[in-house]
Amino acid sequence: MDLPNRNDAINCPAIFIMYWNAILADTAAPASTGQASTTTASTGQASSPGQGTPPAPLFSNPLFLVIPLVLIMYFMMIRPQSQQRKQLAKLMASLKAGDRVVTASGIIGVVITVKDKTVSLRSADSKMEVTKSSITEILENADASPSAS
């Protein structure tokens, strides 16, 4: 029978898993802590009640790795996105005729009318209708425009 060499075990995941399972099966299982006054077969000594397996390290539980990852994902991805969504909703609510705006495609224009889902813009000599969601920024409010007196 031709046995695979070590390079084959690394290149083929099935062989690697087979060897890894064999290694894990050969390792000794930890002694249980429930048997305090049993004698060991090899030494013949009784174990004292205070001796057992040492406690597991504090961070050996995978839950201690998952919780910080979830927190990092929340503060890096979810929270900024929800803040941006709130800011965009506030911008859409404050949109009115006469505002100078910028669309997502870079068109700068003045709002003529505001409808439920669309906005009519005048840019140079052209008039166009775009969706409200394509407006990214208000450059000047209609109230802030200088009045000629």
Give the gist of this structure:
The chain is of the alpha+beta class and 149 residues long. It has helices at residues 6-11, 13-26, 63-93, and strands spanning 100-103, 108-114, 118-123, 126-131, 135-140. The relative contact order is 0.08.
Can you walk through the features of this model?
About 5% of the residues have low confidence. A 5-stranded antiparallel β-sheet has the order 4-3-2-1-5, covered by helices on one side. The radius of gyration is 35 Å and the shape is elongated. The chain is an alpha+beta fold and 149 residues long. The N and C termini lie far apart (101 Å).
State the distance separating the first and last CA atoms. Answer: 101 Å
**C-alpha Rg, in Å?**
35 Å
CATH fold naming of the domain at 96-140: SH3 type barrels
Helix content: 25-40%
Number of helices: 3
Unreliable runs: 36-42
SSE order: HHHEEEEE
Average predicted local confidence, pLDDT = 78
What is the tally of beta strands?
5
Give the strand order, joined by hyphens, for the main sheet: 4-3-2-1-5
Largest pleated sheet? 5 strands, antiparallel
Assess the beta-strand content as a share of residues: 15-25%
What's the architecture of the domain at 96-140, going by CATH? Roll
Structural class: alpha+beta
CATH class of the domain at 96-140: Mainly Beta
The backbone outline, from C-alpha atoms, is: elongated
